[in-house]
Design goal:
Blueprint: H1 5-19, E1 29-33, H2 36-39, H3 52-59, H4 76-90, E2 94-98, H5 101-104, H6 115-130, E3 134-140, H7 146-149, H8 159-174, E4 180-185, H9 187-195, H10 210-237, E5 240-252, H11 258-280, H12 288-300, H13 313-319, E6 326-339, H14 350-354, E7 356-359, H15 375-388, E8 394-398, H16 410-430, E9 434-440, E10 459-461, E11 470-472, H17 474-485, H18 502-517
Parallel strand pairs: 1-2, 1-9, 2-3, 3-4, 4-5, 5-6, 6-8, 8-9
Antiparallel strand pairs: 6-7, 10-11
Helix pairs in contact: 1-18, 4-6, 8-10, 9-10, 15-16
Bound molecules: 1-deoxynojirimycin.
Enzyme class: hydrolase
Family: Belongs to the glycosyl hydrolase 1 family.
GO molecular function: beta-glucosidase activity
């Protein structure tokens, strides 16, 4: 039987729909992100004081994979105009960057305000405004002034006031130029990696204890900054303020296993819910499973009090609802394989408190051990956020892929393309309100304890050259086209040449159907 033209047309339409991507909705915005310590350099000039990363990388260089540090980094303190040129070339709507607390307030407190720090950020903001690029500014992206760490850092409740003071100064000095603020970048990394472990500076490694002292202080500090902005600055500056929460999304290794499904939910509550539940749910406070698990573990350890205390009624109310949007930094998905103590868990620890065994044996790889490529996990996380947090408006404040620094970075493009495609899916199929997307990162930069050994940039930076030249990678061209067209670029030059690309597969499918029907 000859294949009817209708069948051919239907097949063509089906094939086309699988390769013709939908446009991002009207008003959806695109940007790229950086962070002060990762790009600025100028670590000790013009009044900037030492921060916890300066201290760690100088005093314990063996803690940084390639022995580098942020002393010069991308030299953006001196070369910020080059950064603005790159942003303009990309055609982004916004630029997410962070303020260096130690550059603005060298003691961390209001007693000394560094005029050069204020000038630097005003210059950058003015250059962005001249090029119609909206700033999205993070107050705290991990670089605590060492002077405040010497007082206990985020384990010290006094930090609530110090952070509020710092935020107050920033709102006052820059608030007419900045309409979008992020209080904290990735509270999990701050509290668990830096206080509960030594994966980040200041590497306190107070596992199972410091991590929860930190979250207590950090969430209160966030709430105070939010209320300050909301009551004092928003009425005159008309901006918005949010928090960026990071997630490793956990899924059951065996989706048929009820135990693993339940444990994955527990892990997601421990990871994302730790900071999202107090702010984005109507009950507020830490997730009950977290409170219960830590109380149980603490009792088993012979403690009279839980290592994690629930907020009191005053703070539950004060923290609830303190974010205009849900900012999500997302990179990867890991799996849960069963109940028990994860073999890598310290005792006591946040990981042991979860009571589940995790594995990274999933998806494609990257240059970072922890970063597995699992685009569908992103969609699952976004759907979960919609249902768990009352359908919040969401900004993806970071998403990106690491390699070793190649200019033809097909792996990065594929990652962006597949993850962005999942965003389109959840927007159109599930009604998740994703309003913007931020690629991490504008240029290769100081990747914390990995130094410059793992590279996430759209631009390649040669860090052995004092001029720190930046070169656009292929992903920069991809991102430029994305920003210009508001749909996933289809130009074949962005995709690794492969015979079995989608179009070829579709062509062969038609041929086979035609042959069979003959
Ligand atoms: C999240 C952090 O915010 C950023 O500083 C870091 O470089 C990226 N993840 C990649 O690890």
């Amino acid at each position: 039987m000859a294949m009817s033209s209708l069948t051919i047309l239907t097949l063509l339409a089906l094939c086309h729909s699988s390769i013709a991507f939908r446009k991002f909705p009207e008003g959806f915005t695109f940007g790229v992100a950086t962070a002060a310590h990762q790009i600025e350099g100028a670590w000790n000039v013009s009044g900037k004081s030492e921060n916890v990363w300066d201290r760690l990388s100088h005093s314990r260089p063996e803690m940084i994979a390639d022995g580098t540090n942020g002393d010069i980094a991308c030299d953006s303190y001196n070369r910020y105009m080059e950064d603005v040129e790159e942003l303009t070339y990309l055609g982004v709507d916004f630029y997410r960057f962070s303020l260096s607390w130690a550059r603005i307030l060298p003691t961390g407190r209001l007693d000394v305000v560094n005029p050069d720090g204020i000038r630097y950020y005003n210059d950058l903001l003015d250059a962005l405004a001249e090029n119609n690029i909206e700033p999205l500014v993070t107050l705290f992206h991990w670089d605590l002034p060492q002077a405040l760490q010497d007082l206990g850092g985020w384990a010290n409740p006094k930090m609530i006031h110090y952070f509020r003071d710092y935020a107050d100064l920033c709102f006052k000095e820059f608030g007419t130029k900045i309409k979008s603020w992020i209080t904290f970048n990735e509270p999990y990394e701050i509290c668990e990696d830096a206080y509960g472990d030594e994966k980040k500076a200041p590497a306190v490694d107070s596992h199972g204890v410091g991590c929860y002292l930190c979250s207590d202080t950090l969430l209160k500090a966030h709430a105070e900054a939010y209320h300050l902005y909301n009551e004092t600055y928003r009425p005159v500056q008309n901006g918005r303020i949010m928090i960026s929460i990071n997630s490793i999304w956990y899924e059951p290794s065996d989706p048929e296993s009820a135990e693993q499904v339940a444990l994955a939910e527990v892990a997601n509550q421990f990871k994302f819910g730790w900071f999202a539940h107090p702010i984005f749910t109507s009950d507020g406070g830490y997730p009950s499973v977290m409170v219960d698990n830590v109380a149980r573990q603490s009792a088993a350890e012979g403690l009279l009090k839980s290592r994690l205390e629930q907020f009191d009624a005053y703070w539950i109310q004060r923290i609830k609802g303190t974010s205009d949007f849900l900012g999500i930094n997302h990179y990867t998905t890991h799996l849960i394989t069963g109940a028990g103590v994860d073999p890598i868990a310290k005792s006591p620890s946040w990981l042991k408190d979860i009571g589940a065994v995790t594995t990274m044996e999933v998806g494609g790889d990257s240059a970072s051990e922890w970063l597995r490529v699992v685009p569908t996990g992103f969609a699952n996380l976004l759907r979960w956020c919609k249902s768990s947090y009352n359908d919040p408006p969401i900004y993806i404040t970071e998403n990106g892929f690491s390699d070793y620094g190649t200019l033809l970075d097909y792996g990065r493009i594929k990652y962006f393309n597949d993850y962005l495609n999942e965003i389109l899916n959840v927007i159109y199929d599930d009604g998740v309100k994703v309003l913007g997307y931020t690629a991490w990162t504008l240029m290769d930069n100081f990747e914390w304890r990995a130094g410059f050994s793992e590279r996430f940039g759209l631009y390649y930076v040669n860090i052995t050259d004092p001029a720190r030249p930046r070169k656009p990678k292929l992903s920069a061209e991809y991102f430029k086209e994305l920003c210009a067209t508001r749909e996933l670029p289809k130009d074949p030059r962005f995709f690794e040449p492969s015979f079995f690309r989608t179009e070829c597969r579709c062509f062969f499918l038609i041929l086979i159907v035609w042959y069979v029907s003959e």
